């Protein structure tokens, strides 16, 4: 079955062949994969998906890949967790965590997009894959390139967290640190892509890459028993993820896999880099670029490529937006860890903080189902929380030393010692 007709311009609708192309030559609109939904409707059903592998590749009919065994075969199908303690803390009744902090193999949702993009790059016959990244994409491209036996050239802004750098270099790519912000890295990469002819996953392979994000939404709906939630909060950088989750839910509805798609999509960004949130607040679909200044480096894209479409997804779904200060981001990371035992990176802190804001301000009613998109792992951004954590207790290996240390820490006395059951001595 030829499930793909080709590519199509999102703006003027002109068709293009399924090649490594990403912009319309006529109107400069972005190209998108054009599926043959009429034939997909005949084959795609819940049973067929449920019989598939426990990975995002159970949705392969709805992904633009021909190759039988994809690169990143084990990616996706991460846990959807009912967050009972976080619910109480947020004062809401039905909160879920979609936990891509444990996505295989590189611990962020970027594995979904990269697995599709690198598979596609192989199908096209490229032998170098590349990307402009704020960190997680770098980790994922380098990992998938290693798995695929391809070379990789990775471009990041200088000054990323050590976890993101080491988490890239371990796979032995060529890592280029550019003295500039992400938007400058991205501009440079567009020129390099033209000149060197590499497969830049988020530039010339972007139409295919972006489709991988749909699986985040597919999984949520399937894991909720083939139902879309009322709200999804999505941390946004370039604006692709939120756009594609929304697209994925609409496809599920169109294919009759879920009864309705009444989900309201909400965008979360850092206050220090909030071009999409600002546009949504102002009700104006022109995205005004900003200079990022935030601890949340993974979301620090000042000129988001899909900002306009993120705005449209929010508008169409009657969602809203919220941003988070650096302090709120750290508080959000700690709250998720303390209530649910999940260590997320800064982007997750943004999402938790945004959830709190949207619930407190009444945008999200307390009795409706809410999914928080946790998209990355906290072990990669340890620097930002280290100083906000409870200091360790240092002791000699003796009971006396322990007793003395405890006596010097009133915080421990209140939290632990005085609450211990009294009948344990014996
Ligand atoms: C890249 C990224 C996002 C945002 O993705 P976009 O599709 O660019 O909006 C969210 N969370 C994390 C952890 C990311 O790395
Ligand atoms: Zn066009």
Can I get a quick summary?
It contains 17 helices and 13 strands.
Report the radius of gyration as a whole number of Å: 22 Å
CATH class of the domain at 80-106 and 211-386: Alpha Beta
Largest sheet: 6 strands, mixed
The low-confidence parts are none
Mean pLDDT: 95
Q: Oligomeric status of the shown chains?
A: single chain
Q: Overall 3D geometry?
A: globular
CATH topology of the domain at 80-106 and 211-386: Rossmann fold
| Sheet with most strands: strand arrangement | 4-5-13-10-11-12
How large is the count of helical segments?
17
Bound molecules: pyridoxal-5'-phosphate, zinc ion
> How do the SSEs run, as a string of H and E?
EEEHHEHEHEHEHEHEHHEHEHHEHHEHHH
C-alpha end-to-end distance: 73 Å
Strand share of the residues?
A: 5-15%
Fraction of helical residues: 25-40%
Helix-strand layout with pairing:
Layout: E1 4-9, E2 15-16, E3 31-35, H1 37-43, H2 46-50, E4 80-82, H3 84-90, E5 94-99, H4 110-124, E6 128-132, H5 136-148, E7 151-157, H6 162-169, E8 174-178, H7 182-196, E9 199-200, H8 206-211, H9 214-223, E10 231-235, H10 240-254, E11 264-270, H11 275-282, H12 307-316, E12 321-324, H13 326-340, H14 346-360, E13 369-374, H15 382-386, H16 399-407, H17 410-415
Parallel strand pairs: 5-13, 6-7, 6-9, 7-8, 10-11, 10-13, 11-12
Antiparallel strand pairs: 1-2, 1-3, 4-5
Helix pairs in contact: 3-13, 4-5, 5-6, 9-10, 10-12, 11-12, 13-14
The structure holds pyridoxal-5'-phosphate and zinc ion.
